[in-house]
Amino acid sequence: MPMKQIKLRRLRMMLNNPFTTSFGTLQEKEFFITEISDDEGRRGFGESVAFTSPWYSEETVTTNYHIMKDFLINLLKENDITHPDDVLEVFKPIKRNHMAKAALEGAVWDLYAKQNNIPLAEALGGTKKEIDVGISIGIKPSVEDLIETISRHVHEGYKRIKVKIKPGWDYDVLREVRKHFPDTPIMADANSAYTLEDLEQLKKLDELDLMMIEQPLAHDDIADHAKLQAEMRTPICLDESIHSLEDTRKAIELGSCKIINIKIGRVGGLTEAKRIHDLCRQHGVDVWCGGMLEAGVGRAHNIALTTLPQFVLPGDTAGSSLYWKKDIIKPEVTVVNGVITVPDKPGIGYDIDDEALESFTVDEEVFQL
Ligand SMILES: O=C(O)CCC(=O)C1=CC=C[C@@H](O)[C@@H]1C(=O)O
Ligand SMILES: [Mg+2]
């Protein structure tokens, strides 16, 4: 694959609404937009998803920069890439740092699709023309506030509502939510806030007919989740503890979950995401695409991945305007009645709004390949 140069841009964007999880509140997002160009002037784009502090995983915006600049870009320089799937292999000597790897691999995939004049979704083997999406709601100051927010999004047509929970903000809150929305698909995300000592409290959630409970136990656990799943009727979905195809295989073998949330950044890129998808398909494990409060480029990658057939549950890729006053792609991602129409232009399918991109850039650096 012809590749000429890489540009790393550090961006800073304000979220429209603060996002609160069991770890704290996020108001601003800092991340990298990676751009790989070829001699013909084609440009492939990727987006890093780590946060500024390591609360979700060990990676941060700064570790992403260090790993890309000091290791991964050199590996791209030194190795021939004939297909984007090669990138996973080329990056193998570097342990973990999946979000840094995915940020560069995503740009290679977009460039490849553009060089072949096909949509990224098609390059990945996806077939859906439309995808169903849900929305993730952060922890709110009061139950009334939460009910009001859910009500707004249910009326907008989002296909499922994800509510963040933590000890002290779980069963009673969800019971109220269920009372107000008896027929809405509702799920809970605990971001690893519980242990097996909370078994009785977690089992109470079985009454509420939730679609699933996401990552109730430790961020690095697969074994205890298997014990919990054996005790609960509600499907468990793993997020934080699935980093690879191998993790997925073990989780399936142990019965740690019935559903997997695939995040491209968390698993090291689109190639690994696709492999995890394929294994889940073989085993009848449902998957959906998670979100990391992405700007337009990351959002476009999520949409392309979601066109694969085993993404049978609505993902977290909501419309751009819920997150940003202005996004960095044109047009922005729009959701109508909980559905996104997959773009059919080559690559990620959305144009980059260069003016917006420039306006959010705080730093940039160019590397020749
Ligand atoms: O809207 C989105 O992009 C999804 C938001 C969301 O639920 C999450 C974003 C980032 C970290 C987590 O708190 C979380 C998740 O765990 O899925
Ligand atoms: Mg989660």
Characterization of this structure:
It is a single chain. The protein is α/β, with parallel strands linked by helices. It folds into two domains: 5-117 and 351-368, Enolase-like, domain 1; 122-341, Enolase-like C-terminal domain (TIM Barrel), CATH 3.20.20.120. It has helices at 61-78, 85-90, 98-115, 120-124, 143-156, 171-180, 199-204, 223-231, 245-254, 270-283, 296-306, 354-360; strands at residues 5-21, 24-37, 43-47, 130-132, 135-137, 161-164, 186-189, 213-214, 236-238, 259-262, 286-289, 329-330, 339-341, 351-352, 361-368. It has a seven-stranded parallel beta sheet. It has a four-stranded antiparallel beta sheet with strand order 3-2-1-15, with helices on both faces. A two-stranded antiparallel sheet has the order 4-13. Helix 5 (143-156) packs across helix 6 (171-180) and helix 9 runs parallel beside helix 10. The termini are close together. Bound molecules: ligand 164 and magnesium ion (MG). The ligand O=C(O)CCC(=O)C1=CC=C[C@@H](O)[C@@H]1C(=O)O binds next to loops. Mg(2+) binds at residues 189, 214, 239. InterPro entries: Enolase-like_C_sf, Enolase-like_N, Enolase_C-like, Mandelate_racemase_C, Mandelate_racemase_N_dom, MenC, OSBS/NAAAR. It comes from Lentibacillus cibarius.
